[in-house]
Amino acid sequence: MEQRPVRIAVDIGGTFTDLQILDARQGRVVAWKTPTTPADPSEGLLIGVREAAERFGFVLADVGLLLHGTTIATNAVLERKLARGVLITTAGFEDVLEITRHFRRDVYGLAPDPFPCLIERDLRFGVVERVRADGSVETPLGDLAPMLEKLRAAKPEAVAIGLLHAYANPSHELALREAVQAAMPGIPVSLSSEISPEIREYERLSTTVLNAVLMPVVQNYLARLEARLGEGGFSPRIFLVQSNGGMCSLPRAAAQPARLLLSGPSGGALAAERLSRRLARPNLVAVDMGGTSFDVSVVQNHRIGLVTQGEVDRLPVRLPMVEMRTIGAGGGSLAAVDASGRLTAGPRSAGARPGPVCYGRGGTLPTVTDANAVLGRIDPDFFLGGAMSLDVASARVAMGAEVGDKLGLGIEAAAEGVLRVTNVQLASAVRLSLFEKGLDPRDFTLLSFGGAGGLHATEVADELGITEVIFPREPGTLSAYGILFSDLVQDLARSRLLPAEAEALPEIEATLAGLREEAVARLVADGVPEDQRGIEVSADLRYHGQAFELLVPWPEAPDLPALMARFHTEHRARFSYAAEDEKVEIVTLRMAAIGRLPKPAETSGEAASTSTTPASREVWQQGGAASWPVWRREKLHGADIIEGPAIVEEAFATHVIAAGWQAKLDPEGALIARRLP
Amino acid sequence: MTLGPIEIEVIRNALNAAAAEMDVTVWRTSRSTIVRELLDYSTAVFDAQGWNLAQSARIPGHLNSMSHALREILAHYVPPDEWHEGDVIVTNDPYCGGQHLPDIIAYKPVFHEGERIAFAGTLCHHIDVGGLAAGSYAAKATEIFQEGLRIPPLKILDRGVRNDGVWAMIRQNIRKPDLLLGDLSSQLASLDVGAAALQRLARRFGTDAMLEAGARILDMSEAGMRAAIAAMPDGTYEFTDFLDDDGIDIGVPIRLHVAVTIKGDEASVDLSGCGPQVAGPTNATLASTNAAVMFSLMCCADSSLHMSAGCYRPITVIAPEGLVVNARHPAPVAHRVAVTHRLLNAMNGALHQAVPELIPAAYYGNSYVTTFQTVAETREVLVEIEIGGSGGHPIKDGVNAYASGMHNNSNIPIEMIEAQLPLTVMRYGLRDGSGGAGRYRGGLGLIREWRIDSPRCFFTSNMDRFDHAPYGLAGGGSAAPGALVLRRDGVESPIPPKTDNLPLRQGDVVRLETSGGGGFGPAAERTPAASARDKAMGYL
Questions:
Q1: Quick one: DSSP state of residue A233?
Q2: Contact B79/B153 with Cβ under 8 angstroms?
């Protein structure tokens, strides 16, 4: 479907815009990094592409595909830079959005804040109507004139429409959209029956509202991005990364921006999935540690897991997304000692500004990065490949004052303590991610990436009994690498509570046929040739009486016995039992319409031609300083054997190979560390 | 040996992780909706003496009762030297350290190199343990024998061998044996996970270090709690609040009086002024009472305080037997949560006098439990627990519809109810005007209406705060009391808040109106901007 040779994946983060470039002419994958331009991220994107073109020898007209990961939607929510929205919903239920689901996380708090609510009560309008769970209409849509009058007076920039049971029958929502658009031509409108046609009113409403108030924001960005097309012959087809790890077209992103909300970490998970195959490791636990967060995703039998719901800033998003556990632990996490003498690391963070003390940007409280700097684990003169030098002296002062003095420890011992406390927290997050699936860490290889991951990985593995750690090539742009090899994926869903029994088969088949028709229509609209189309069916199932569902693939659809067999097996694996005599219910049927992008072969990384001798540096560990070898990654040769303790440095990351570990370069270019017996 | 502060932190984190892994195990392997959806369970690890070292953060009512029960068992029922490797001891008996019969607590001793170094414990609210009413929540019980099967502390596993007689005995006495025994098995699996985590820790650090770390963690929690109490001015602070009644002697209020004496860094809580135990199930035993008192004081501490049994040390509770807060056998106790809600309200009223900058006005103080048993071709049961508003706070408004105080559950999606049962929810919204007025307004309560679509339906409820409204503080107004109304053929009539099996018919509508929170500070001092916003939002 695309003849031009160059494919670019770009992942725009808070500080850097990462690019990975695949040039089919050489089958070569290369990486590039450029500063992010926060005012208009598309500017930095184009700068990065131009720089890369010059550096790697292609012209802009060679670029056929641009695969774009962006946190623009997420950031807009976190910073509340959202459109003024109105919610139209079933009369009598205007407050559902504010009531939420009740369960509180801060059990002991005396001064609770309300759950976030993006549309306040005076902008939530009820209309008389009622649809039942089976899709029948109990009360037809009433007179809309009074509501429309209020709507015009409210001067909204976007409208969310979410009615009870609209997943079962969208006719009232469709009629409302027509009326709203007639009254306010051109206003963006989001329907719950389109963005998230699934049962459970609060989660669906939350998703619909998020989608509505994001529409103007994302549309604005996409317009600026499109305006840059044509410059210097740069006119690739553009696709955006969604939370489910698949790409979508620009029109889809403009209409359903909520699908971008949790796409940030999905690139890393995709990369883990691809590396799992390239490195022949079916079971990987991938950890991405950056400045503020630690994201854990699990690859099992070469596949990442999807879940049907996530959240952003405590707001549920009911859309398929890559399964991920995130804790607030990163290089910027603040170390502190409380009144009872308890040392904590995170979850409070120094963020990008002021950042760690050693960055010299005004930070005065010590962070995890400062602990690494104090101990000599990071080279102060080679940070970010030498782009920035670190103020270790100030970090020492802060570590001493805020941690050491309060605990009666020296500066280095305090810093070491901060790392130990951090590592047990990281290990707990990894263990829980596996544990909740009934998996054992010892059966997994740890894949470490992100700017800060390598400093902790082998020690975290030791906490977990994991004996192999892989540091992939280009760990600082790995998300972009994952994006480079992903597919177009459009998720469709329809909720209908049905018994998973023969009597319901006609309705199940009708629903599947409807979904399939829509899936094909979308693939055609995206111009996916027939031989590159794929459709994957799955179902959310539960035993009668359960309150939660299990997502089960259904390649044999509509073969019900096959689905039941998979459900029981999956249920036993995940929840330790199966109740084969109990009735099973289908809650939601899902279909993923997949447009496969060609996966050109990539060549392996190039190792240095000759062996080198490592440099060395004084690093503090367990009560004293010792000289550790310091290797440069790009100078590593396949025959080099790195005995821990040692450090491996590259432009945007530093890796610690702990004592008791031995690391070697693998033919794919990954650095593989193994625990010695 | 003496551990450094870093080792203590590493071990503390590992203990927290053990409790969290136990928590995930219950969640992962349990069967009933009450555990899986309402999340009505807790897990914890204890030192070798039964003191709570770490816990998963779930239900306040559970958390600080589990150490009490284990200590009771060790002192009176199963002496320390009779706990062997592979044993699991369970009980649900409120008169042996438990709270009410649906809560089954299970403990497992953890050994390393032949020495008992710790205990793991889980508490689950089970869907039914027999007795008068489905769910074992009979509003009209007058003795505990009507409330279900009582399990005295006994070995359900004896050196790793299942005590089959006990399992068979339980199976024979309850309504949903597969669910209960399934959930009980999940408790046992969780204990194994906790024990393995603790043993992993002991192998790494050694027994001495484990024990020392445990002792130091308790000491540090104690120091944190003492610091919080020391920050309160010395004196005795009294407060009285009331439960409406026990459902048997209708309209006879139950007095909850607390006298909190702060002296230096210690607190003594005298409950002698509480009313005598009552005929109906609105009684508490000491496990419940202590949990409410400890929770109220622990909330006043620094947010980084590690919640462990060390926090209990500077706190003394005086609760003479025979009172509603320390009921004498065989008083019924199924609705002990009502006592703990009100006791917490009373504690907060007293603590407000000591630390006025911390304590909000009264929250709704009630678990609004409703049960609908619809009767058509099949019988289906819906159990819901609703909430109200939180109290106005010294520096901000209370929160509308916020799960507060002793419980912490989820609501049930309307669309799920309507897809499964012959019921229609006609309305679910905030209740205008239900928050107490004040400089800082109380959060609003809720309105929920159910229409019966089946030919017959039986309605059961167990609620309070219909006569005695949630109070305001510092001159703030009280919140609206609750209301429960039946609308039949266009005519409305009140339903008593404590009702067993009220027959309803098709087309009837039940409306629940829950209390908001009390207001804080005089309403006259509310800022014009805040008042204008209340008006714009229709909150008044």
A1: G
A2: no
Minimum distance, in Å, between the CA of residue B78 and any CA atom of chain A: 31
Burial A93-111 (b: 16+ CB within 10 A, else e): bbbbbbbbbbebeebeebb
Which residue in the set B13, B413, B428 is minimally distant from A425, CB to CB? B13
Distance between CA B123 and CA A193 in Å, rounded?
41
Chain B residues touching A409 at Cβ < 8 A: 4-6
pLDDT in tens, A67-96: 999 888 988 998 999 999 999 999 999 999
pTM beyond 0.80: the answer is: yes
In tens, the pLDDT along B398-440 reads: 999 999 999 888 899 999 999 989 999 999 999 999 999 999 9
Radius of gyration of chain B (CA): 23
Q: Would you call B380 an interface residue with chain A, using a CB distance cutoff of 8 Å?
A: no
Distance CA B306, CA B16 (A): 10
- Domains of chain B, by residue range, sit at 5-222, 360-540
Instruction: Find the CB nearest B410 among A101, A341, A413.
Output: A101
Q: For chain A, how are helix, strand and coil distributed in percent, rounded to 5?
A: 35, 30, 35
- B81 dihedral zone (left: phi>0; alpha: psi -120 to 50; beta): alpha
User: What pLDDT does residue A605 have?
Assistant: 61
Q: What backbone torsions phi and psi does residue B156 show, to the nearest 5 degrees?
A: -85, -25
Distance, in Å, from the CA atom of B392 to the CA atom of B443, rounded to the nearest integer, reads 7
CB interface of B with A, residues 215-254, below 8 Å? 220-221, 223-224, 227
Using the Cβ of B527 and the Cβ atoms of chain A, whether some distance falls under 8 Å is answered with no
d(CA A608, CA A664): 13
**Which of A89, A95, A434 to mutate to probe the B interface, most B CBs <10 Å?**
A95
Closest residue of chain A to B305, computed from CA coordinates = A340
Residues in contact with A669: Cβ distance below 8 Å, sequence separation at least 6, in sequence order: A472, A473, A604, A605, A606, A607
pLDDT of residue B104: 96
- Contact residues on chain A for B221, CB-CB shorter than 8 A: 340
What is the Cα–Cα distance from A586 to A511, expressed in whole angstroms?
Answer: 12
Q: Do B539 and A98 touch (CB under 8 A)?
A: no
User: Where would I find the beta strands (DSSP E) of A440-562?
Assistant: 445-449, 468-471, 488-499, 533-543, 550-553
CB atoms B409 and A102 under 8 Å? yes
Mutating which of A89, A101, A105, A110 best tests the B interface, going by the most B Cβ atoms within 10 A?
Answer: A110
**Could you tell me the domains of chain A?**
6-77+220-260 (3.30.420.40), 82-215 (3.40.50), 333-420 (no CATH), 488-595 (3.30.1490)
Asked if A108 and B298 come within 8 Å (Cβ–Cβ), the reply is: yes
Q: Which residue of A has its CA nearest to B412?
A: A101
DSSP state of A190: E
Residue listed under structure tokens 């037809």 = A140
pLDDT per residue as tens digits for the range B88-129: 999 999 999 999 999 999 999 999 999 999 999 999 999 889
What is the tens place of the pLDDT at every residue in A408-435? 999 999 999 999 999 999 999 999 899 8
Asked if B415 lies within 8 A of A93 by C-beta distance, the reply is no
For range B454-461, the mean pLDDT? 93
Q: CA of B421: which chain A residue's CA is closest?
A: A133
Q: Is B531 on the interface with A (CB under 8 A)?
A: no
Tell me what pLDDT residue A402 has: 96
Interface test with A, best of B8, B9, B188 (most A CBs within 10 A): B9
